[in-house]
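Supplementary Note 3. Input sequence used for the single-chain structure prediction.
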Amino acid sequence: MGLTFPSLFKSSNPLLATLVPTISLAYGLQGLVAVPSILTQSERFYDLSGSLTYLSCTALSLYLPLLRARVSGNAAGRKIASPLWQSLGTALTGGRNWRQIALSAAVGIWATRLGTYLYTRISADSGSDSRFDRIRTSAPKFAIAFFAQATWVSICLLPVLALNSIPSRILISLPRSVAITDILGLTLFTSGFGFEVLADRQKNAWVKAKREGKHNEDFLTSGLWSKSRHPNYFGEAALWSGIAVTAAGVLVRSAGINGMGLRASWQRRALGLAMAAASPAFTTSLLLYGSGVPLSEKKYDE
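The predicted structure, written as discrete structure tokens, is reproduced below.
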């Protein structure tokens, strides 16, 4: 049997019914941006497209339950009167556990801030980024960068996608009170996000002052940069750890496990914990050994 559009939304497993469409969307969007970028050999919209992919996948994960209901209703011959925009508003504002809304909003705030910041920065640098100097002229290598970005989005969003896959009727069994994982997670996110924003602003001010001839320092050593060589990366790792902690508080519970379509057991709890931990683990590894610290260190060494 061929895979049809409605079949993507009919899986009896809520986790798969969420992961398959959202991850497919991530690779699809990156593919759409990759084609013109490769043809024009321009990375101007690379980072911005990553942020838009985060926003799109997060919104889709919230919208999927209503979308599946619409598809199922149409397939059964039942006319659903409410327009798509109204259903989307319902999905984003009602019928969801507060943790789903809070973490989805956290991702949205982070992605919007980072995307606009990076787009503004690359536009100020005539649309070029030194990270792409050796790959923009090679179509295969440039394409891999977009494929890698889709993978980055998919793994980092895993705890949020898993949480959003759980039906509201299941999450209603969770205590309404705030748990220790909620407090710790949201505190980590808020602190990490603030750390990243402040670090970026301090660096921007330092770069601007240097361009204006107000100093000739080779390295930024004031503010947060006097405490860490890469405070922005520290903030990034901290905020994703916060999202993971809050999500894990649900994903390891029986309600969370059952809600994802799994049977509660210690193995499934370990799986829930692994899905939450994958995000900060991948982010930290990428920053320490991939496109973060190594490229920054190499740039300044040169």
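Residues 1-9 have pLDDT under 50 and may be disordered. The two ends are 56 Å apart (CA to CA).
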